[in-house]
Automatic annotation (TrEMBL):
Primary location group: membrane
GO biological process, one term: siderophore-iron import into cell
Lineage of the organism: Bacteria, Bacillati, Actinomycetota, Actinomycetes, Propionibacteriales
Organism whose genome encodes this protein: Aeromicrobium endophyticum
Keyword Glycoprotein: no
Gene3D superfamilies named in the record: ABC transporter involved in vitamin B12 uptake, BtuC
Single GO cellular component term: plasma membrane
Pfam families referenced in this protein's UniProt entry, alphabetically: FecCD
UniProt KW keywords: Cell membrane, Membrane, Transmembrane, Transmembrane helix, Transport
Name the record gives this protein: Iron ABC transporter permease
SUPFAM superfamilies (alphabetical): ABC transporter involved in vitamin B12 uptake, BtuC
């Protein structure tokens, strides 16, 4: 069978017009669902607000009105960060799973988020960096170092970087980096109090300055990620066939790893190292739309913010008037999903 025939024999990568129409309809539905979740993210919490209050907060803002201030200064930036950071984590997870052919790949599992967090804490605590737009570069460096380290460790041996070896290497690197982060933070009590919520992943306390300083990097990473769908489809056919079709595999992988570093680094700088969500949601997207990465990425773009914001809402309501940080809620929900993927590998074949 020729290369062209084999490429044409991959019907799963060439959806029919009917399936494309169904997927487009599903995408539109997800846009509407995300809008609904954003509405609840703005209105629900310890202080409930109604539509009239939301309208006044933007049309006739009264700084003396506590409810309107909560909406404009707390919940709107929190929701916007949830949208962009969630999209970044979902896309980075989908890209990692595609480029490594590893169903267990995720920025949290592979230590990328932990690397970004360690470098951020080092920049803040040791070098005195205060601006998000400055220490986000430390996040990119940490994410890149962690990615290279994990992949390098997993590559040792005859079998190369297998899914299990990548997961084990990621767990080991994450443990080391998390210990370093804790050691740095615990030397300063005030910093420990300030960063303890951020360390587990939090949307609380992330205001407009954080959003405006990270959104350019998040937007850049999202645009780059959405452009990798065709290349990921080529890699899905196998490295030999991708090379035969003219794809520059090494360059493609390098670009994708850089994209993941941008996405994970910016998301970690914005709301801390949130784990598991980038692992589970791409599999959910794959279950819905099949193996075409152009659709997997598009669906992950919307599904991940929906899941993240829903988890944030649950965290606000479950111990109201207190609050459970979104990273804790995602961890509680994501750990069983991770175990399920490990136990039933056929659920996550790539």
């Amino acid at each position: 069978m020729t290369v062209t025939a084999r490429a044409e024999a991959a019907p799963e990568l060439r959806p029919t017009q009917r399936s494309r129409a169904a997927l487009t309809t599903g995408f539109v539905v997800l846009v509407g669902l995300l809008a609904v979740v954003c509405f609840f993210s703005i209105t629900m919490g310890a202080r409930g607000v109604g539509l009239s209050t939301i309208w006044k907060a933007f049309d006739d803002y009264d700084p003396g009105n506590a409810s309107e201030t909560v909406i404009r200064e707390l919940r709107v930036p929190r929701t916007l960060i949830g949208i962009f950071a969630g999209a970044a984590l979902g896309l980075s997870g989908a890209i990692l799973q595609g480029v490594t052919r590893n169903p267990l790949a995720d920025p949290g599992i592979m230590g990328i988020n932990a690397g970004a967090a360690t470098f951020i804490v080092f920049g803040i605590m040791v070098l005195g960096t205060q601006s998000v737009s400055t220490y986000v570069w430390f996040a990119f460096a940490g994410a890149g170092v962690a990615t290279v380290t994990v992949y390098g460790i997993a590559s040792f041996g005859r079998e190369g970087a297998t899914p299990v070896k990548l997961a084990l290497a990621g767990a080991a690197v994450t443990a080391i980096l998390s210990s370093i982060t804790s050691a740095i933070v615990m030397t300063n009590v005030s910093a420990l109090n300030e960063l303890r919520f951020w360390q587990v992943g939090a949307l609380a306390g992330r205001y407009f300055p954080v959003f405006w300083q990270t959104v350019p990097f998040l937007a850049l990473g999202i645009v780059l990620a959405l452009g990798t769908g065709r290349a990921l489809n080529g890699l899905a056919l196998g490295e030999d066939l991708a090379l035969a079709l003219g794809q520059r595999v090494r360059l493609t992988r390098a670009i994708m790893f850089v994209t993941v570093a941008i996405l994970s680094g910016a998301a970690t700088a914005a709301c801390g190292p949130i784990v598991f969500i980038g692992l589970v949601v791409p599999h959910l997207a794959r279950m819905i739309c099949g193996p075409d990465y152009r659709w997997i990425l598009s669906y992950s773009l919307l599904l991940t913010p929906i899941v993240l914001l829903l988890a944030d809402i649950v965290g606000r309501l479950i111990i109201s008037p207190g609050e459970l940080q979104v990273g804790v809620v995602i961890g509680v929900l994501g750990a069983p999903a991770f175990i399920l993927l490990v136990r039933y590998r056929n659920l996550a074949e790539l």
